Automatic annotation (TrEMBL):
It comes from the Bacteria. Residues 28-367 form the Leucine-binding protein domain. The keyword ATP-binding does not apply. This is Branched-chain amino acid transport system substrate-binding protein. Pfam families: Peripla_BP_6.
Length: 386
């Protein structure tokens, strides 16, 4: 696959085309918007590397892929989406890496009747299923499955009180809301909720307040390397309770930044991260191991992550839907974009490296409880907790 680079003046851009002429009428134009710089870069960069492994064609139709960098900025994401629909006439947009830019992208894309598969984690991207969200899909598991696993683990370990600290984004708020709704049924009390920005360099004030009631456990809700900050501060203060994280931090950069301070943390994450440790009967085990092998052959041992896999799985979902959409219309038309949206919505039993997808008109996430497992950080590695 030959990549050609181009610069877009309006925003920070990494553009590339999969060696395919835009003039070919049947080519499928795919726009990809990722956070390649800024706080979301630890998610966006592995996603970019996964996109580079996409096939050159789907269902016999060549792919044109144009990738743009939103720099983890909502305004840039909006500009990128506008460019892709107006100038590149894309048939679908994949992205962004995080929830806030994904929400903006979906609003822009829906106006042009262009479907979006987001790699962001927040359920707000696809819920409620009305208005512009009818054109949005997402690959990452919803908060409720991770929160359920965490609460079950807390109850098993006789946790009665929990302090929460969350980033101030839709991703963070989604987890906070889910936890507050579900915790009472497990007889678990929230002692306090603190918040911080992804760009903050210190959380001393928040952690001081959070630790004051001496909760049995702390639940950190963040994405990328900023998720290490509260845990490092808790360790500095000698906190001895259990610490939980979300899969938003499940990459090597988080382990590198957190070092020994994140050891022992529990995390609800994608089965991909512990694929080889799963039972043979798990349907996700084989595709997850296959992706890990492919990705690491091109990017080095230990480089595979949930974020890279999300970009790969978006392609697998697209690969499943395109043949059906082609029965209705040719790429490059509103009829094809509509047919593609409908084909994704009607996709069933799509087994990928992170989940089994069953979309519907009421569920544009499409995953079930198999999309999350519990793991623990031990010696800088993710260890499956059965």
């Amino acid at each position: 696959m030959k990549l050609s680079h181009k610069l877009c003046r309006s925003i920070a851009v990494l553009g590339f085309s999969l060696a395919l002429p835009l003039s070919a009428r049947a080519d499928i134009n795919v726009g990809v918007i990722l956070s390649l710089t800024g706080p979301g870069a630890s998610l966006g960069l592995p996603e970019q590397n996964a996109v580079k492994l996409w096939p050159a064609s789907i269902a016999g139709e060549k792919l044109n892929v144009t990738m743009l960098n939103d720099s983890t900025d909502v305004s840039n994401a909006s500009k990128a989406a506008s460019k892709l629909v107006a100038e590149n006439n894309v048939d679908i947009i994949i992205g962004s890496s995080l929830t806030p830019p994904s929400l903006t992208i979906t609003e822009v894309a829906a106006q042009a009747k262009t479907p979006v598969i987001s790699l962001g984690g927040g359920s707000a991207i696809v819920e409620p299923q009305e208005g512009h969200r009818k054109w949005a899909f997402k690959v990452s598991a919803p908060e409720k499955y991770a929160v359920k696993l965490i609460l079950e683990h807390m109850r098993k370990n006789k946790i009665a009180t929990v302090g929460l600290i969350s980033i101030t984004t839709a991703y963070g708020e989604g987890y906070v809301k889910a936890f507050e709704q579900m915790a009472p049924s497990y007889n678990i009390k929230t002692t306090g909720i603190e918040r911080y920005n992804q760009t903050d360099q210190s959380v001393i004030a928040q952690v001081t307040k959070l630790a004051l009631p001496k909760p049995d456990a702390v639940f950190i809700i963040s994405a990328g390397t900023p998720g290490a900050l509260p845990q490092i501060e808790l360790k500095k203060r000698g906190y001895k309770g259990l610490i939980y994280q979300t899969q938003g931090v499940a990459n090597n950069d988080f382990l590198r930044v957190g070092g020994k301070d994140v050891e022992g943390a529990y995390i609800a994450l994608s089965p991909l991260m512990v694929a080889s440790q799963l039972d043979e009967s798990n349907p996700i085990r084989k595709p997850a191991m296959a992706f890990n092998k492919l990705f690491e052959e091109h990017n080095g041992a230990g480089s595979a992550s949930i974020f890279a896999a999300s970009a790969w799985d978006a392609m697998l979902i697209l690969e499943h839907a395109v043949p059906q959409a082609l029965k209705t219309a040719k790429p490059g038309t509103v009829e094809f974009r509509t047919a593609l949206r409908d084909a994704i919505e009607n996709s069933r039993d799509v087994v990928t490296s992170t989940a089994v997808y069953n979309f519907s008109d009421k569920d544009h996430n499409g995953v079930d409880e198999r999309s999350q497992v519990m793991a623990r950080i031990e010696n800088g590695k993710w260890v499956y907790v059965k």
